Amino acid sequence: MTDTNALFEPCNLGSLTLSNRIVMAPLTRNRAASGFVPSDLAAEYYSQRASAGLLIAEATQISQQGQGYQDTPGIYSQPQIDGWRKVTDAVHNKGGRIFLQLWHVGRVSHVDLQENGAAPVAPSAIRADTKTFVNNAFIDVSEPRALEIDELPGIVNDFRKAASNAIEAGFDGVEIHGANGYLLDQFIKDGTNIRTDAYGGSVENRARLLLEVTAAVAEEIGAERTGIRLSPVSPANGVSGSDPQAQFDYIVDQLNLLNIVYIHVVEGATAGPRDNVPFDFGSLRQRFSNTYIANNGYDLELATSQLAAGKADLFAFGRPFIANPDLVERLKSNATLAELDPATLYGGGAAGYTDYPRLSSTSSDR
Ligand code: 8OZ
C-alpha cells in the first residue's frame, strides 16, 4: 500500500467534488419517528459519517404503497421533507455530500402497512418467499396483486415527486432503488414478471418501468443529480432472472443514453458471495460513461486493487459503516474495524445507532 492511495484522494461526481472515493451504502435502520419522519437522531447518525466521500441515505419510500417495513422513512409529506432537511444540513455542515435512495418495495410488504389494509402491488400476483419486519417481528409478506397498466404512470409520478421533494430537503441528488428484489427489480426479472403487456416479456419490456422512472427523475432534478442502484444477479427477496447479462447490458446502455451521473452495482448476491452466478460486471462498467460505484464485500485491499485496475470509480461500503462512523479514517490508517451488534440493527433508538465510538476520542465529534 502506498501513502498516496487514490481511494482517499478527492474526485468528481458530476459537478460535485467528493473528498474521497468511499461511499456509505444505503442501510435500512427502521428508526423513523411518527409519520415516517426521520428523527433528530438520524441527523446525528449521518453527520457522524460525513467523512465518506458520499453518503447515500437509507431506502426511503416514495408513497405509503411503497413501504414494506415498519418505521422506514418517507419522502412524500412536508414533515418528512422538513425532517430530512435537518439531516442534509447536519451533513453539509460537516462538509459531506448526501444522496437519498428512493424506494418502492412492490410485493415485499404487508397489508398492515398499506392504506386500508390493501394488498401490496407487484408486476404479477406472485407472492415472495421472504419476510418483512412489521409489528416488531419478522413475518411473511402478504399476497400481492398485479398492477394495472394504467396505474404505472402514477408510480412514475410518485418517483418524480419524491425526487423533487428530496431536492427541496437539501439532498445533493437521489439514487433510484432498482435493486434487491423491490418493485423495479421485480419488473426487470422474469421470475417475478409474467406480464403479457408492454411491461412484460422481452428484455426491453421488462426494463421499461425502470427506464421511465429514471427518465422522469432525471427530467425533474437533472441527470447530474440522478443515480441508480442495480443488482443484476442478486436473489434478494426471491427474485430471479433467466437472462441477466443481456438484460443488464441493455439497461445500462439505455441509462448511459439518459446520461445519469452514476450506476451503483451490487456485484453478486446482496450481503452474500460475489460470485454466486457468472456475470461480467466489466461489461456494465464499459457501457457506462459516467461514474461506476461498486458494492458488495469490498475491503481496503479489494477496493485499492480494483481502483488501480480501473474496474470502478467509487466503492460503497454498507455494514462496516454501522459500527465505524470514522470508517474512512480507519481504512486510511489500516486500523481494525469494529463489529456491529446485530441486536440493534433494525429499530430502537441511539443504542447501536449513534453510540458507536470513533477510534480517536480526541475527535471533535465525541
Ligand atoms: C435490509 C432490511 C430491509 C431493507 C435493501 C432496503 O436490501 C433494503 C433492506 C435491507 O435494499
Supply database-style keywords.
single chain; 366 residues; alpha/beta; TIM Barrel; 8-stranded parallel beta barrel; two-stranded antiparallel ribbon; 10 helices; 14 strands; globular; disordered C terminus; binds 2-Phenylacrylic acid
Q: Quick gist of this model?
A:
Helix content is 30%, strand content 16%. By secondary structure, it is of the alpha/beta class. The protein has one domain: Aldolase class I (TIM Barrel), CATH 3.20.20.70.
What do these coordinates show?
- A hairpin with a 2-residue loop joins strand 7 and strand 8 (137-140).
- This protein has helices at residues 40-48, 78-93, 152-168, 183-188, 203-221, 244-258, 281-287, 300-308, 320-323, 327-332; strands at 11-13, 16-18, 22-24, 54-61, 98-103, 121-122, 131-134, 137-140, 145-146, 173-178, 226-230, 262-266, 291-295, 314-317.
- The two termini are 30 Å apart.
- It has an 8-stranded parallel barrel with strand order 3-4-5-10-11-12-13-14. A two-stranded antiparallel ribbon has the order 1-2. A two-stranded parallel sheet has the order 6-9.
- Helices cover 30% and strands 16% of the residues.
- The protein has 366 residues and is an alpha/beta fold.
- The structure holds 2-Phenylacrylic acid (8OZ).
- 2-Phenylacrylic acid binds at residues 28, 59, 69, 180, 236, 270.
- The site of 2-Phenylacrylic acid has 6 residues, from loops.
